[in-house]
Each structure stands twice: as C-alpha cells, then as structure tokens.
Amino acid sequence: MREIILDTETTGLDPLRGDRLIEIACVELMNHLPTGNFYHTYVNPERDVPQISTEITGLTRNFLKDHPVFSSVANDFLEFIKDSPLVIHNADFDLKFLNVELTQIQKEPLRNPVVDTLYMARKKFPGSPASLDALCRRFKIDLSNRTKHGALIDCELLSAVYLELRGGRQQGFLLGKDGKSEEGSAELTLASNKELKPSRNFTLSEEEKTKHAAFLKALLK
C-alpha cells in the first residue's frame, strides 16, 4: 500500500489573509515504510517572510526569491502524490494552504484520503502532548538534527512516528485472499472508529535498519 507523508512550511497561519507556502515535502511509504523516494521544494511566496516564520524555519525572503512559485511546482507535486493517501500531522492546516494555492491557479483541491497523525496520537494518548516533538520524545526518536522546522526533516520524523502509532511494522497487517489488506479503507479517514494497535515492544529488524539507512542517505543527497 502506497502512502505519502506530507508536510509544509508557511509564512503564517492563515492563507485567506495572504499567508503563503514556502516549502513542501513528501516522503513515499510502501506498507508504512519509507522507500527512499521523496519530493521536496522551496516555494517563492511572492511576498515578505515575517520574522517569526524565519525564526521557526530559518527561511528568508532573500533565499526564497530565487526559487519557483507554486504554479511552477504544482504539477510535479500532484504527479508525485497521485491519488495516494496522505499522512499529515494536523492535516487541516497543511490541506488548507495547499487547497487555497491550488484554487488560485484554477486547479481542483486535493481529494486524497487523509490520515491525521495528530488525531491518531490524541486518540491513543488522551490528555498527553501530541506535537511532533512530543511524540518523537515519547517514542525515543532522535531529534538532534531538527534545529529548525523544515518540511523534509519533519516528514522523516513523522514517518517514524506514524510507524510507532500504528504499532510497528506489519503488526496485525493481514492479507486477504485477494492480496489486499483486511484492515479496510475506513482507517484512512479522520472519522475512523477502529482501535489503534498497541505500541511495538520489539527492536528493529535488520531489514528495517537497512531501509532506514537508505532513506537517510537519500534525504542527504
């Protein structure tokens, strides 16, 4: 099953008040594991970048002005994600920005199935902090390379968090006679009522370690 981890960075909080995308990143998963394929671009917002955004992301107007505008990258972005389910932390935020940008260039809004890991975390750990940082600390995922918020590094971290939220690799993942998952498509919506699987209690296999190493190598190219 192909899924896409997706994250964005923006100039602010509200695209309806003129805030724009400044970075988009996507990481491909197959059966919940990174394949090493990813899409990443910085985006010229065609406006100033507020100081607060620069402090969070490290991205400045001067840096972004030499990068493509959204209309120039939209087709490549859509071609990468295709109709695959999107895995996003706080999905409403990223989808709001993407859909406003797409609408402004006369393209249809995204209709992909969505998995919101914020929803998953709040359901699995009610009352506990559910930010990406908090979940990384909970699952002992290394945050040492995350000095600023960046869409690509956040996708890498979210891919590890998502695997843990699902209970670990292939835990309870059964194939039916037709070769498709018996878990069904309902799990791919925010309204899913299925119980999440318990946390994994075993170490990474050698195959997982190899795949993760290949993924990190691809990100650093």
Report on the structure:
The protein has 221 residues and is α/β, with parallel strands linked by helices. It has a five-stranded mixed β-sheet with strand order 3-2-1-4-5, with helices on both faces. The chain has a single domain (2-219), classed as 2-Layer Sandwich (Nucleotidyltransferase, domain 5), CATH 3.30.420.10. It has helices spanning 51-57, 61-64, 70-81, 91-104, 117-124, 132-138, 151-165, 206-219, and strands at 2-10, 21-30, 33-42, 86-88, 114-116. Helix 5 crosses helix 7 (151-165). The model is unreliable at 171-205 and 215-221 (pLDDT under 50). The chain is globular, with a radius of gyration of 18 Å. It starts with a strand and ends with a helix.
Order of helices and strands: EEEHHHEHEHHHH
Q: Walk across the major sheet and give the strand order.
A: 3-2-1-4-5
- The appropriate CATH architecture is 2-Layer Sandwich
What's the average pLDDT? Answer: 83
The whole-angstrom Rg is: 18 Å
> At the fourth CATH level, what is the homologous superfamily?
Ribonuclease H-like superfamily/Ribonuclease H
Proportion of β residues?
15-25%
| Structural domain count | 1
Q: Approximately how much helix is present in the residues?
A: 25-40%
Q: Any idea what the shape is? A: globular
Kindly report the CATH topology: Nucleotidyltransferase, domain 5
Determine the structural class based on helices, strands and strand pairing.
Answer: alpha/beta
